[in-house]
Amino acid sequence: MSERLKNDAAVEHAVEALRGLRGTIGEVFFRGSHSTSVEVKDGAIENVLAHGERGIGVRVIDGQRVGFAYTSALSSEGVRACVDAAHAMSRVAEVEPDLQIATDSPPVVELGIHEDGERSVEDRAAVAVEVERVARAVDPRISGFRKTTFSDSGTTTIFATTLGAWGRYRESSSGVGTAAIATQGEERQIGGHGEASRTFSGVSAERVGRRAAEQAVGKLGARPFPTQRIAVVLDPWQGMQLVGAIGTLFNADSVLKGKSLFKGRIGERVASARVSVIDDARKPAGLRTAPFDGEGTPTRRRELIVDGTLQGYLTSLKTARKLGTEPTGNARRGSYAMPSRISPSNLHIANGAEDASAMVAGLDRALRITSLLNLHTIDPISGEFSLGAAGDYLERGVKQYAVQGITIAGNLVALLSSISGVGNDLTFGGGGIGSPTLVISELSVGGT
Amino acid sequence: MTPSITARDAERALRTALSRGGEWAELYWERHHVVALTFDDGKLEDAVTGLDQGAGIRIEVGDQQRFANSNVADADDLMTLAGRAAAGITDAVPGTSFESLRQEEVPRTHAVAIDPRTVPIERKVGLLRRVNELARAGGAKVHQVTAQYRESVQEIVVANSEGRFRTDTRVRLVLSVLVTAKDGDVLESGYEAIAGTLGFEMLSDEAVVAAAETATRRALLNVAAEPAPAGTYTVVLSSEAGGTLIHESVGHGLEADLNLKGMSVYSGRLGQKVASELITVVDDGTDPGRRGTAAIDDEGARTNRTVLIENGVLKTYLSDRKHAKKLNIPESGNGRRESFRSLPICRMTNTMILPGTSDPAAILASVPDGIFVKKMGGGQVDVVSGNFAFEITECYRIRDGKLAEPLRGATLVGQGPKLMSEIDMVGTDLGYSVGTCGKDGQSAPVADAQPTLRIPSVVVGGKVKGTAA
């Protein structure tokens, strides 16, 4: 192997190779990125990681059959082998009459997702060191850190089809995260927090260090908690976990296969009237903002739930055609090595009208969740969940004591209907997901 | 298959890596072939194949590690990468000693009989089609079937400035079945997977049929089951449940990186009693054909059978090179990485509680009122506090020492060392489960195993009667 191809040349090579296959159409998705991470520990640099990555994913449609292959060997031989492998895979695929590829180039739009800039390892380390300094200043019981990492990256995406579509965009991100340890006698508790931004200056060491420390210290002295039904408070960061979990309910692919509880419910009430859910792929500088999706469809802002009523689904080219609707630009690519999958962009629960602290102070007794274990086990099909949790027991909004070793259980859809309060403190997290403070009127808590 | 980088290429790259200073350097090269097939909604939904090739070069400079990685096509790319890894080093002394590379064959504990790359793709699709038909034969309540086949052939080369040059080829297969059953408004699922570091011979017709039938039976059982109650119960964990418990409640806490930083509930407790004397815990990266098995770890160290806890006493931690040195314990061969993109971290391979002396039937019969866990799903642990949670995917109420009604939607939560000191019966049997473990954003194939266990009192998460959500 030799003769490394530049980014555009790799895409052009692949498109040419695709055109050389008789009777097929095809799509090429290129992604190239570089990133640097600096890990510090107790004020000193521990690891410096520099990462470079380039590859293409190729989709071949032969008749009505699709095959997919990827490669990171970007020589002309490597690209050709990848196109041939995708073509070979299409032969075992089944006939799918609704397959399409883009014919038009997506328009170029400015979304504030890219920042040019060079910075030194020391500049990056300084952010992480500051996070640890802030955390230690919060409380003397902060005894150390598992790891504090600052990372930044720059990514180029190029998309092309044999039918003439061509698009490209660049994006950048910076992020910092830590896990602080609080110690009191024999007891140790961990509190983690991380944030990311499209720009270097958008990352706040102050916020990250403070929240991680407060999370860790807040769990000290945690007690067991009796089994009961009780009102539950999710602050924006915990609310994001709920928002992240409901994303698949809107997935048109799941809907078509009968795997979503939102199937057949457009126009119906699926959540409390206080709840509106928005997926905004054009949110300026949003972490999941992109001009077009993995199939070259231009993205847009969508209202998925308005005042509790379901408005629509997230679709790809194929699923939109099956549903007889417009593609929404949600066929996202996790990487060049993964085919498009329907997923949300900057999904969030819309800001409410109530002051979050006043809303929580209005509850006689409540459990404020501070951490959840096993979120990956939520069943997206049935919506059932049963998770490990820790939290704070509150009376009239005032913390009485921390609790641990408990579980919370319920169903995602029932949970959406039992949201009795939505705060006015909408916050977006590192994954592009956003939530205000939420109050769940009642939830099952398992304990002693 | 011969690696496409030679010891000579590797040595040149390592010398370049150390040219500006540093005490030690390592090259990790990888070529990873993948075929992933997804059969969903009655048809082949996704057919993906790919080749991922790259390298990572690590340099130790004092207490720092400098690591650069990228896709590499040839020896020139490797040299460029070595230059990038060294670029940040400015203040160290050059001229570190360097051992010439010696190629060394590491014996394997098992052989791959049928290389999956030689099996026609149609046969692989045929397996999924068969799984789909078997599951759908489960009746009208079978709502959806998703079957996945994944073959992974990972060729690696590890070389370092101490003269190490070792290679390994890991052939791993997974066949998984997810069945969703529907009854009225209730949707529930059943899952089963077969996986190992083995060739296509692993996917015998008997094994495939058993997986499809088990996932289907589980989905149908769960859809008809009562929601699990919430509260504190006596729990019997069947050996068939697999080892998620040991993985979450103990295993992660014994990883040396977390212990060095004093961050595990097991930190500083070597030689102390940390579990009931009925408990012996082993991590065995050499267990033939298991999902976590390999000849060498991702730093080129031979894998081992490591006794972590013996009759309740903590013996050692799971280590990589860096942490074995810092903790002054033997290197256990547990430095693993997801790919050339990541630094190795300390992690489990195949982790198990060894069998004890109680008859499994007698353990069940000893419980007048409790919960019998037949299968566990995913889990997670907070290693600092030791609090863990895991999902239960098949369980029953125990009444008068016998299995009674099935329950669904349960979770077990507890604290690792506390739970391990409370286990009061350990069965003579041993059952395995397979999984993919996540740590610090990296995933790794693992297996876990345990005998039938009795836990006198543990929190079970489920629903409190009468709740809306």
Q: What's the structural domain tally of chain B?
A: 3
Distance between the termini of chain B: 56 Å
Quaternary structure: heterodimer
Q: What strand order characterises the main sheet of chain A?
A: 3-2-1-4-5-6
> Biggest sheet of chain A, in brief?
6 strands, antiparallel
Rg from Cα of chain B: 24 Å
By helix and strand content of chain B, what is the structural category? alpha+beta
Q: Largest interface, per-chain counts? A: A-B, 98 and 82 residues
What's the N-to-C terminus distance of chain A?
63 Å
Query: Unreliable stretches of chain A, pLDDT < 50, 5 or more residues?
Result: none
Strand content of chain B: 35-45%
Mean pLDDT of chain B: 92
The total strand number of chain A stands at 20
Helix/strand-derived category of chain A reads alpha+beta
Q: Characterize the overall form of chain A.
A: globular
Number of helices of chain A: 9
Secondary-structure element order of chain A, N to C: HEEEHHEEEHEHHEEEHEEEHEEEHEEEE
- Give the total of beta strands of chain B: 23
Helix tally of chain B equals: 9
Shape of chain B: globular
Q: Would you give an account of this structure?
A:
The complex is a heterodimer of chains A (448) and B (469). Chain A has helices spanning 7-20, 76-90, 121-138, 205-218, 236-246, 252-256, 317-323, 356-361, 412-417; strands at 24-41, 44-62, 65-71, 142-161, 166-184, 187-197, 228-234, 277-280, 301-306, 309-310, 331-332, 341-342, 347-349, 365-373, 384-395, 398-411, 419-422, 427-428, 434-435, 438-446. Chain A is α+β, with helices and mostly antiparallel strands and 448 residues long. Among the domains of chain A are: 121-156 and 169-218, 2-Layer Sandwich (PmbA/TldD fold); 222-448, no CATH class. A six-stranded antiparallel sheet of chain A has the order 3-2-1-4-5-6. Chain A is globular and about 70 Å long. The termini of chain A are far apart. The mean pLDDT of chain A is 95. Chain B is of the alpha+beta class and 469 residues long. Chain B has three domains: 7-35 and 46-104, PmbA/TldD fold; 116-154 and 171-223, PmbA/TldD fold (2-Layer Sandwich); 231-461, no CATH class. In chain B, strands 1, 2, 3, 4, 5, 6 and 7 form a seven-stranded mixed sheet that branches. In chain B, strands 12-11-10-15-22-21 form a six-stranded mixed sheet. In chain B, helix 1 (7-17) runs parallel beside helix 2 (75-87) and helix 3 (121-136) packs parallel to helix 4. The mean pLDDT of chain B is 92. Chains A and B meet through strand 2, strand 3, helix 2, strand 4 and strand 6 of A and strand 2, strand 3, helix 2, helix 3 and strand 7 of B. Strand 2 of chain A pairs parallel with strand 3 (64-71) of chain B, so a sheet runs across the interface.
